Each structure stands twice: as C-alpha cells, then as structure tokens.
Amino acid sequence: MTFVKLKHAVLLALAAAPLAAAPVAAFAQAGFPNKPITLSVGFATGGGTDITARILAKKLTEQMGQAVNVDNKPGAGGNIAAEQAARASPDGYFIHLTNIGALTVSPHTTKKLGYDPRKDFTPLSMAVQFPNVLVVHPSRPMRTLDDYVKAGRVKGASIAYGTSGISSTGHLSGALLESIAKTDLVHVPYKGGGPAMTDLLGNQVPSVFASAPTAVSQIKAGKIRALAVTGQRRSESLPDVPTIAETFPGYDVTNWYAFVAPPGMSRELTERWNREIVAALNDPKVREQIKEHGMESVPSTPKELQDKILREYVLWEKIVKQAGITND
Q1: What is the pLDDT of residues 82-113, one digit of tens each?
Q2: Which of 104, 221, 259, 271 is the most exposed place for a label (fewest CB within 10 A)?
Q3: What is the spatial distance between Cα 287 and Cα 280, in angstroms, rounded to a whole number?
Q4: pTM, 2 dp
Q5: CATH topology of 35-129+256-323 equal to that of 131-246?
C-alpha cells in the first residue's frame, strides 16, 4: 500500500470511529442496570433515613429488575457516608440517600469536612420532607412543651435530649429551642435516630428530637409522649400535637432527605435515576407508606434539588453561627 493510500485509509477509519462508538455507548446505556445497586445511608438501622431508604429500595428493585441494596454506614451525623459517596464511582451502581444536615449544615459546623455538597455530588431528586418531633419517655412528668421548657429553667437543672447526631436537624431543633425559650438543654448525639429512640424507650435519655418516621409509630403505640412538632404547621400524622411555633412564633425546623450520586455522573444516567426515583416516590402505595411514617413525598428535578441545597446552605450558615454550633 502506498503512503497516500495508507493515509487515506487512516483518515477514513478516524472519521468512522465516532459513528462506531455511538452505538456501543447506546448499547451500554440500554443495558443498565445489569448488576446489583448500592443505596448508601449515613445512619444506623431503624432511623428515618433508613426507613425511607428501605421503602424506596424495594420499589426501585421492582422497577429496575436488579436488587437495590441498602448499605448503612453510620457516624458523624451522616458525614462519613457522604464523604464516601463523594469519592465513589459515578457508574450508576452507587447512589446515596442523605439529609439536610450532611448537605447544608455540616459544612458550617465541621472545619475539615471531606466533601463540598455544592460541587461534590450529582443531585438526583428530593425524596421526602417532614417535621421533627419532641418526644419524652411516658414516665417523665412533662406533658406539654411548657412543662418541658420550665423544667429546663430550674436553677441547676437541665434536660438532656438525644438526636441522630451532631449537626442533624434534631440537634438544630434543640439548639434553636434552647435559644428562643431561654431554657437549659444538653445535646446527646447518637449514630442515628434508631439508637436514640432505643435509649428513649429504655428511659436512658429523657427526651429526643426525633424524625417523624422514627417517632410516629411509637407515639401511636403509647410508648413515648409527643410534646410538639418542629414545623410551622401541624403534622397530618399527628394532628393533635401542637407546633413549637404555636408557643414560640417564628420557630421552624423542617427536615428533608434527598438522593445524590457521586460527582461526574453522565447526563443519561442522571436522567435515568431521576425518572426511576420520581416514579417510585409517586407510586400510590409508596406515598401511603411514607405518609404512615409521618413524611411527605416531594420528588423533584436534579436542578430543583441543586437549587435547594444552595439556598439552604446559605440559610443554615447564618443559624449555625448564631447558635454557636460546632463539631470541632
């Protein structure tokens, strides 16, 4: 073959390469998923994030034809699992269900956080939102929020409250109440809402700012007593429980969970995951299950989730500084 003919053959091969690659990429995308998927959760079993993850993992498994396995990695208020998620492969086989604390609060309370939520994740969709609930063991004398606040105002006294971890919305709920009500509260962080609830049921801690999914079933069973919810309006699951804002106007702490993936996930995989998550959250049976645990399904676009993260990142920065909350 002459040099001219060889050069011509090489140019033809290079020109054809993108055309040949396109069907291969499309074929690979069409074959997703072809192995089990990991759904990472940054808290222990039994807590609100875990409950939500297991409800949705079951539905996603049905939809996608591959097992979606929940992987609990508790610690540091969800930050350990979030850091691992930020370093995982963006191949679509790893997604992470995280919360408001890890995405918008921890950056302002932890100096050496191993990720930046504004750029180190691929947003997929919002999942659920709900209030926290201030609950006490039924053997305790506090029957109303007023009783609780007054008990903490007694000279030399203080009330311990458990939460799912430092920087969690439970922690913020307690810190904000302590500041507004001028009462003395002591934070007791756990590695998730499940362990905190276990100690409350065992009367090892007098009170907990619990997520609604962790608390609602125990409240309805009469095993714990609800004093107030942290949102601006009463919970549909607990309509007889007043809001803290009814006593202290302006008080509002609303919890939420969201799905993210590692950074750099392709647009095609991001869109696929968004479709699957939104479909699962809109399924009538799933919505009812979520409602039974005191939550509301709030699917979104990836852009809507990204905007929420950025918006609340700024909001909680101000509140954390005012409350003086720190992990260090």
Answers
A1: 999 999 999 999 999 999 999 999 999 998 89
A2: 221
A3: 9
A4: 0.80
A5: yes
CATH class of 131-246: alpha beta
Domain over 35-129+256-323 is classified CATH 3.40.190.150: yes
Predicted local distance difference test score (pLDDT) of residue 244: 97
Structure tokens at 52: 């939500």
Closest Cα to residue 219, out of 133, 128, 286, 131?
A: 133
Cα 318 to Cα 135: distance, rounded to the nearest angstrom: 27
Residue 200 is inside which H or E element, if any? helix 193-201
**With 60 as the cut, is the pLDDT of residue 12 above it?**
no
pLDDT of residue 30: 62
Are the C-beta atoms of residues 286 and 277 closer than 8 Å to each other?
Answer: no
The per-residue b/e assignment along 5-41, b for 16 or more CB within 10 angstroms, e otherwise, is eeeeeeeeeeeeeeeeeeeeeeeeeeebbeeebbbbb
* Residues in contact with 192: Cβ distance below 8 Å, sequence separation at least 6, in sequence order: 43, 44, 45, 46, 47, 49, 50, 74, 164, 165
| Contact in structure between 174 and 220 (CB atoms under 8 Å) | no
- Where in the chain are the domains? 35-129+256-323, 131-246
113 contacts 106 by C-beta, under 8 angstroms: yes
Q: Is 45 buried (19+), middle (13-18) or exposed (0-12) by CB count in 10 A?
A: middle
Kind and range of the H or E run holding 311: helix 302-323
Cα–Cα distance, 239 to 183 (Å, whole number): 26
